[in-house]
């Protein structure tokens, strides 16, 4: 059928062979639907897992005390600080004249030279070390207060011998003195002239808070009546000024210092290098 501009318009029914029908879109396949649902479930599971991990990390790492607080809440109170409890126990037992029980071997007992070495080593090892005020200077000091090793160990006596040897090798000249004392200044000036290596270890008693305990303790261990007290190789060779001047003038004191391991003029030679 031919159409022209002069042909009259006719309805679409006469032109088209049949009614126009639009084909509906095909429904989603069951496979695609299940895939979308499984992905949503999987994402939710991953989010939930990450949330659980984050909360666990916070309570276990960032805020570890939370679990401990829950554990002790409603139960007995936390025990006191162990260090404070130990110090209180030492103080109470020493004040009442009791010795602490030794759970391992027999109690370690130091003789006078060993006690002098232990106290000197304790004071020389750290400037802030001091003898506790509750110590009775007229009695042997508790070794556990001044020794770093286990005094109940089977090797305790051997470690004491090593300690005695080491302290006097490292401190061949040890001077207990007073800063505000003419006698002490005389001894210090003479030692300074020797330029000893290692340099003398000097403890000024009148600058220490434990002088009331330490001074009588040293008098008991050395037999001296006053300060200064000079130890050479662990031996109290100077206990008064008359003794010091006699040994100095005879040259014996310098000889004994050299025999103890100190090098006369050694400090000056080190400075030149």
Quick structural overview:
The protein has 273 residues and is an alpha+beta fold. The protein has eleven helices and four strands. Helix 5 crosses helix 6.
Give a structural overview:
The chain is α+β, with helices and mostly antiparallel strands and 273 residues long. Among the domains are: 92-167, no CATH class; 172-272, Glutaredoxin (3-Layer(aba) Sandwich). It is 51% helix and 6% strand. It has eleven helices and four strands; from the N terminus they run H-H-H-H-H-H-E-H-E-H-E-E-H-H-H. Strand 1, helix 7 (182-194) and strand 2 (201-204) form a beta-alpha-beta unit. The longest helix is centred in the first third of the chain and has 33 residues, at 30-62.
- First CA to last CA: what distance? 125 Å
Helix coverage percent of residues?
40-55%
- Which CATH architecture of the domain at 172-272 is right? 3-Layer(aba) Sandwich
Helix segment count?
Answer: 11
What share of residues are in beta strands?
5-15%
The third-level CATH topology of the domain at 172-272 is Glutaredoxin
Query: Which outline best applies?
Result: elongated
Q: What's the CATH C level of the domain at 172-272?
A: Alpha Beta
Question: Largest sheet at a glance?
Answer: 4 strands, mixed
User: How are strands sequenced across the largest beta sheet?
Assistant: 2-1-3-4
Order of helices and strands: HHHHHHEHEHEEHHH
CATH homologous superfamily title of the domain at 172-272: Glutaredoxin
Average pLDDT across residues?
79
Given helix and strand content, the structural type is alpha+beta
Taking all Cα atoms into account, the compactness measure Rg is: 45 Å
Which stretches are low in confidence, meaning pLDDT under 50 for 5 or more residues running? 64-80, 92-102
The count of β-strands is 4
